[in-house]
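Fig. S4 source data, part A: sequence.
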Amino acid sequence: MADTIIRALAKNAPVKASAISAREMVERARQIHKTLPVATAALGRGLMAASMMGNQLKEEEGSVTLRIKGNGPLGSMTVVSDSQGNARGYVVNPLVDLPLKGPAKLDVGSAVGREGSLTVIKDLRMKEPYVGTVPLVSGEIAEDITSYFVESEQIPTACALGVLVDVDQSVLCAGGYLIQLLPGADDGVITAVENGIQRVGAVTEAMRGGMDARTLLEQVLSDFELEVLSEEPVEYRCYCSRDRVSRALISMGRQELEDLIREQGRAELTCQFCDKVYQYSKEDLETLLASLEK
């Protein structure tokens, strides 16, 4: 089943929502970065959160970046989504291994750390991107995303994210939802949303039971009549290229390029998001230097 993201509005209440099924996206990230289970779950949750937030952007060329810096052994995490919801990301320490905190429950909070910050960068192709930073609440990521929306954007939000890792360390299922109350939502709306969340329970169990993104959203918001705004495929997608890497090398400036040629005579750069390696010979670097001097 292809990964899908869906956005909807409640016709009879001030509620907007997104949901995602992303097993392939998270599994691709696991394969690229060779993450152990707790890192797979953490990175997967970050990717899905960024994907849903990116998919909400109105700017076609826009992007959303989440940077999570906790005091846990996972180190920092960076995930980026385009405006369609295609996401990419990495964690500093993908080989973190921690004891389970319960039956089949990965301890993402301890891996990320409960002290630190979540920074959200929204690039809307304007002069300056929007940047908001909040303290981490739990390191479980979904709660931290909820806190970000309440504190930085003043939007009451319910976020759930889940990644279920199989016994062979591959991703069995992954998904989540983002439900947000718009101005005018009363106590009755809040209660209906809360009841739906409680009724569906854990995202991983719901998706293991066969739910996709649409069904998940319909079940959580079953007390509302939904208008689907969009439903489209998403994937793990990196935008790196040799041209971009070359521009990065050129941006180092003449002196640093000359030092690189003199001291190393070559360059090898690895993309943090997809681990693709770009090789530059001495002649390649001299060509870049010559283009700079022109």
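Fig. S4 source data, part B ends here. The first strand starts at residue 4 and ends at 10.
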